[in-house]
Each structure stands twice: as structure tokens, then as C-alpha cells.
Amino acid sequence: MAVGIFDSGLGGLTVLDAVEKRLPEASFVYLGDNAHAPYGVRDPENIYELTRGHVQTLWDRGCDLVILACNTASAAALRRMQEAGVPEGKRVLGVFVPLIEALTERQWGDNSPPREVAVKHVALFATPATVSSRAFQRELAYRAIGVDVEAQSCGGVVDAIEEGDMILAEALVRSHVDALKRKMPEPQAAVLGCTHYPLVQDVFQAALGPDVKLFSQPALVADSLADYLERRPNMQGSGEQSVYLTTGDPGRVSDRATQFLRRSITFEAV
After folding, report:
1. Are 57 and 5 in contact (CB under 8 A)?
2. Beta strands 91-93; 243-246: pairing state
3. Is the Cβ–Cβ distance between 55 and 87 less than 8 Å?
4. Under a CB-based contact definition with an 8 Å cutoff, are residues 27 and 238 in contact?
5. What does the radius of gyration of the chain's CA atoms come to, in whole angstroms?
């Protein structure tokens, strides 16, 4: 048994790296749907069907707990999957929760009415599908009032990262930040609402300026998962060796993963 981590492609590697360092005794099965990446330009129904199928694959491989390390999948599929019913003994969680917890400074189980928070002007950088879903704004509104969220759809960034063209990815980031600033000149905080974006986090920060607080998911997700498993140790797994799966070309994906994480990772075909 292991903890499953699902992503549309390579972005979830940022979460995988953080959780492996935070939880060295845990084992993981990572599944990247590289054959269908990026999800951010797909319609909600297609995203749901792809996500549901791959989560089932991870459940079938003994993962009682699956993390959707993909904001697009979390936005388009998570709530629908939970409402449809999850098999007994299984759990599927998204990556919005730790972001909302950090931004609002309140725990997810805190069901008190929405209240004022310190940050009033938030920039959200995400894929087109995540932006159009308004899932982040909806979840934030349950917990905070008076927060102005300006969302910027970052088309092309995920594609460039998946192709390993970091020069193009960095240029696109600067362009998207410029577009956001024309709508919200002085954001107090910025949310990187895609797990690919931490790979160019320094570019976001430089373009936004040093006074903008950046909320990036890997460390937040790792801490949240550690807390979750401390309260539910039966979901952690048995310490078996981690496995890395892809729907794409295992050799190519292994090369990209090794490049991004600066350590050798070998993917298998699913």
C-alpha cells in the first residue's frame, strides 16, 4: 500500500519531491497522464473522465489515499468525484485545501462563518480550465470575505514546461504577470495555482516584485499531507519502494523528471 499522487503530466513532480522529503518513510505511486497533458485546455467533462479513470488505477494498485496534484483536476473533478461516492476505505484529496488554509490562516475543519483576512488583493495564476471553473474563488468565499481575486489564465506555460522549453516558459510567465498587473497593479499576494509553476517560481517572483507574497503548493501540500497522515496513520502505506508511472513515453518522461528534480527517476508505462 502506498499514497497515490496523480497529475496531468510533470507538474506533480514538484509535489512529489516535497512530500518525499517531508515523509521519507512513506511510499508513493506517482501517475502522470503525460499522453493527455496539458489538462488546462480540455473541457470539464473530459478532465473529469480522465481524472476518474486514473484515480481508479491508483486505487486498484492499493493506494487508499490519492492526492490530485493537479489544480485543473482538483477544480474540475474532485467535488464531482466525492459527490458521486468514493469506495469504502478510499480517499481522494485535492491541492486547493492547503492553499486556502495558508491564505486564510484557518484550518479546513473550521466551519465558522467567513471572516476578514489580512490579504485583500490576491493574484491567481492558473490554467485556463482552472480559471474558468472559479473553484478557487468559490472555496475562498466559504472562508473569507472582502478578498479581491484577479485571475490570470496562463496559456502556454504548461505546454512549454512539458516540452522542456524553459526559455519560452519564462517569457510566457513574464507576459502573463504583465497582463495581470494591468488589471491589478498592486497585488499583496499571488497564488501559483498549477503544480507546474513552482518550476518557474523565481520568474514569477521577479516579475511580481519582492513585496508580493507568493503562495506555492509543494511545501504547503507536503505539510498538510504530513498532518493528515499523522491523524490517519493507516493511510500512509507500508514503506515499500515508490513507483513512478506514466501514460506517455517512459524514457522521455524519465529524462524530463530527472532534469526537473536533479535526481534519477525511472518511469514505467501504465
Report:
1. no
2. unpaired
3. no
4. yes
5. 18
Segment 122-137 shows an average pLDDT of 95
Query: How many whole angstroms separate alpha carbon 195 and alpha carbon 167?
Result: 18
Written as nine digits, the cell of 5 is 499522487
- Would you please indicate which residues are annotated as catalytic (active-site) residues? 70, 194
The set of residues, in sequence order, having a beta carbon less than 8 Å from that of 227 and lying 6+ positions away, is none
Using an 8 Å Cβ cutoff, are 219 and 212 in contact? no
Integer Cα distance of 86 and 132 in angstroms:
26
Angle CA 214–215–220, to nearest 5: 145
* Contact between 219 and 19 (Cβ < 8 Å): no
CATH architecture of 3-95+218-269: 3-Layer(aba) Sandwich (3.40)
97-216 architecture in CATH?
3-Layer(aba) Sandwich (3.40)
- The rounded distance, in Å, linking the Cα atoms of 154 and 175 is 9
Structural domain boundaries in the chain:
3-95+218-269, 97-216
What pLDDT, on the 0 to 100 scale, is given for residue 238? Answer: 63
The answer to whether 198 and 14 are in contact (CB under 8 A) is: yes
Cα(12)–Cα(30) distance, integer angstroms: 8
What confidence category does residue 237 fall into, taking pLDDT thresholds of 50, 70 and 90? low
Question: Distance of CA 87 to CAs 55, 94, 227, Å?
Answer: 11, 17, 23
pLDDT recorded at residue 132? 94
User: For the residues 238-255, what does the mean pLDDT come to?
Assistant: 90
